[in-house]
Amino acid sequence: MTIHLSHEQLCDLILADLSLQPERDSWRELEAESDVVHEHLRACLICSAELRSLRDSLSHFRDASVSYARQEFAQSYAHRSSIAPPHTFLSQPLYWAAAAVVFVAALFPLSMHRHRPAPAVIGTTATSPSRQTTESDEALLADIDQKLSADVPSPMEPLADPTAGATSTTSTSDQRTN
Amino acid sequence: MASRAITSDTHSVTRQSPATPLDDMASIVATYEQKIFRFHLISIRDRDVAQSLTQDTFVRAWAARDTFRGDCSMSTWLMRIALNLIRDHTRTDRFRFWKRVSETAVDVSDVASHVPHRDSSLESRLIASEQMALVWESVAQLSDRQRSVFLLRFVEDLELSEIASVTGLPISTVKTHLYRALAAIRARHNATHKDPL
Predict the structure, then answer these.
(1) Do A67 and B134 touch (CB under 8 A)?
(2) Which of B35, B37, B151 has the highest number of chain A CBs within 10 A, making it the mutation to test binding with A?
């Protein structure tokens, strides 16, 4: 009766693989660590065939899983990139130029509204009359002060100076006439 | 500005500044997102759930970035988070796991079409697809832990010590799970090959 490899021995051969690629020869080197196992694999076609078949199955499983996951990930990433622009898009000059144009276009009506001349005109017209009024008020007050401080009121000035000219005589005769 | 902490795809992370390497989350996501998505997809076999869990993995990594001390590789750390999320998900949907039929559930035929054909003969293609389907269906019958360990070894190509780090199990226990998983596959394998005879 032929004694085949135990399950643990078979598993150790599979787990010792650095890679599950069946075409790589590394597993043969690892198999050489155990002369007994190595010799048995050479002699026993059943064990060697089962080992090869298991390696192939695991290799196909891994390759298919990795390939499938890579495709699903790419599809997932493409879907996400359609929602939000990636960083590479933000680094494009065209993107920033378009953003600048939109920004300036949005600010343009606002700046036009701010630079309207009407408030400035109102401001100048509001300041100049007040200044003129202040000056005229000061002149009027100064005139009043001068008149009040005078010894003789201006209407009485002709009477205060009898030696005045014809003009003063005329004015006196006019007063009498009135 | 975060420094480039990821130096290569070999998952080695070096600290160039006092800040944690996870501060540059954009680079982390760009480097590991596909790998994490693949692990979720093959474990859960549902596209939408895989996408959601992939996002959750990085959200959780960002939230716990202060706890990453560089004791293990970034890949191992993220895989640990991903595995915990899968456990949480399968725990809540335990009764529907692998049995749920949804529009985004992955069918074996979807994956079988991705089997590479090194030989162009029709017979070899059919054999390869059958072998892949056999393992695919066998993996579905494994326990949660056996399946995770099996996928980490035979899809993600992790060493036993890395699997032990991800799962938090001793290496001997990892090996035992792999023995059992391979026993299930082997039994199905032998039954399939003996039936035609």
Answers:
(1) no
(2) B37
